[in-house]
Write a structure and sequence with these properties.
With 305 residues, this protein is of the alpha/beta class. The chain is 31% helix and 22% strand. A hairpin with a 2-residue loop joins strand 3 and strand 4.
Length: 305
Amino acid sequence: MRRKLVLPPAVLLLCAAALAGTAPAVASPQAAPSPTPASPLRILLTNDDGYDAPGIRKAFERLTAAGHDVTIVAPLTNQSGTGTKTSSAPTLTVKHPAPKVWAVDGTPGDSVAFGLSEVFADRAPDLVVSGTNFGPNVAALATHSGTVGGALTAVESSVPAIALSTGGISVPDPVTTVNAMGPTLDFAVKLIDRLRVRAKSGPLLPEGVGLNVNHPVVGPDGKGTAAGVTTTFQDPQTLLDLDFTDSGDGTWKVGVKVDLRPAAKGGDVEAVGKGRIAISPMNADWNTGPADRAATSALLVGLRP
């Protein structure tokens, strides 16, 4: 049986309110523009592709152009697939190549932890943005994503966070994916502004909640506009099929192929596959919903040490 993610009503209402009106529409003379927030946000920007990757550089430029105070605290090297991992080494190498750039020789989790503890030691940032990632982070890809892991590191420290990813379900094409980062970041600015307006002087998101945002690649050049926005949940399928071949010398060759199965209705895979932006609310504690807890309790009735 497919398990559906059950979210608190307050989270669903917030997302619906935040995303209302973000889908492409014909302008109406009667439509009044949303009020523009007065003060910029202090944003910690991280990723898992490395501090100098195209996605994070474009994000820095676009968020800065939108008026925000942005500081990059990101991995020194590519850390894709590291999930929520943090290092346990007694020392950590950190470089500071520019006034607004910190490069941490560790995972996205290490980067965010260092940023919150040291770079933003005086006051926590208003928001952590992780990405935009090269390629999608939907279904099980999100579970293992360093981009999502960086955002969750912030969420578990009670700092609002958004994970941004750019890509369709297929293997990312370098040119079109990089082109699609433009529309991804344009939408991110709209999303952040909408959250600021709705939050007024309060937090951008409910405590313990982050957003996993996946923007599709639209059009032959990747610069097209998404078909709309959908509040989704993480599709339970794995997406990737791993194959191991014994080389006979103690090593195994690893093959990977996309294994796309029918998308769960209302999930992130379905939305991105339809050219829509998928936004999945997430938390950092991995608790299941009430139905799953009840089912598990029933399995354990009468169990004794």
